[in-house]
Amino acid sequence: QLVESGGGSVQAGGSLRLSCAASGRAFSTYAMGWFRQAPGKEREFVAGISRSGENTNYADSVKGRFTISRDNSKSTVYLQMNSLNSEDTAVYYCAGRLFWSVGQLPDSRSQREYQHWGQGTQVTVSS
Length: 127
What we know:
Layout: E1 2-5, E2 8-11, E3 16-22, E4 30-37, E5 44-49, E6 56-58, E7 66-71, E8 76-81, E9 90-98, E10 116-117, E11 121-126
Parallel strand pairs: 2-11
Antiparallel strand pairs: 1-3, 3-8, 4-5, 4-9, 5-6, 7-8, 9-10, 9-11
């Protein structure tokens, strides 16, 4: 089970930090990702992180502004979001997928590859 927290309302240019806590003892066997869905749009990939946390990747729209990280000792993945703008307004979801490699990232960013999902947390950015 994945439970997100940290969403809320913020003005443009502000920052938020999302957290996603996983239950169970197998967290380190999962590559993790953050996705988001804006009103009227499809859910899209935001960021991904390898099982060890040493490798990350990002959507072009958030690169340089968002940082994904994880703490396997706490079974938690984070998304630090800086320089937020109105286009970042969405429901943010964390997701996990079993993956064979500890250090490599999955080639696919497709949401269909992720087996476990949180319930989502709303992020609203006002201009």
